[in-house]
Amino acid sequence: MKLFITATNPDGPEGFEKAHVVHGECTINLPDASCTEIIVSEGIDYIARENLQSFLEKCVSKLRQKAIITIVGVDLRGLARCVHVRDMDSNTFNSIVCNLKSFNSSSEIVDILRKSGLSLISQTITNGMYYEIKAARQ
């Protein structure tokens, strides 16, 4: 089974079960160790900060062995850098942050995933402020 978690994309990729982030939380009604792949896209930043670690731990519990999780989000440090060096105006900044529930650096997400027993496959930053993290359950 494959799972797609989002707050903004009602459709998601074909062949994936969907779970939606609503009001800073996400309910995943799947058995543990049932997913071969999980994609969290336009979702992690909508999880309330106080729910972040439990959300990621819940995602990890749904992964089978050798399964992969991909998480895409706004990197706090990258966003701050874009504003600081004036690569971004205030209108663009506000359009990005107005509905988000939390801001995290990619390294914070990686730390939680590693503490949950996952191995990092890749960690990239695109457009100076968006991260994509891939990790696998051994």
Per-chain topology:
Layout lengths: L1 E5 L10 E6 L2 E2 L8 E7 L10 H11 E12 L1 H9 L5 H8 L8 H10 L2 E9 L3 E8 L1
Parallel strand pairs: 1-2, 1-4, 4-5
Antiparallel strand pairs: 2-3, 5-7, 6-7
Notes on the protein architecture:
The chain is α/β, with parallel strands linked by helices and 138 residues long. It is 28% helix and 36% strand. It is built from four helices and seven strands. The protein has helices at residues 52-62, 76-84, 90-97, 106-115; strands at 2-6, 17-22, 25-26, 35-41, 63-74, 118-126, 130-137. A seven-stranded mixed sheet has the order 3-2-1-4-5-7-6.
Spatial order of strands in the largest sheet? 3-2-1-4-5-7-6
Order of helices and strands: EEEEHEHHHEE
Helix content: 25-40%
**Class per helix and strand makeup:** alpha/beta
Strand residue percentage: 35-45%
Question: Which outline best applies?
Answer: globular
Q: What is the alpha-carbon Rg in Å?
A: 15 Å
Task: Let me know the number of strands.
Answer: 7
Number of helices: 4
Distance between the termini: 17 Å
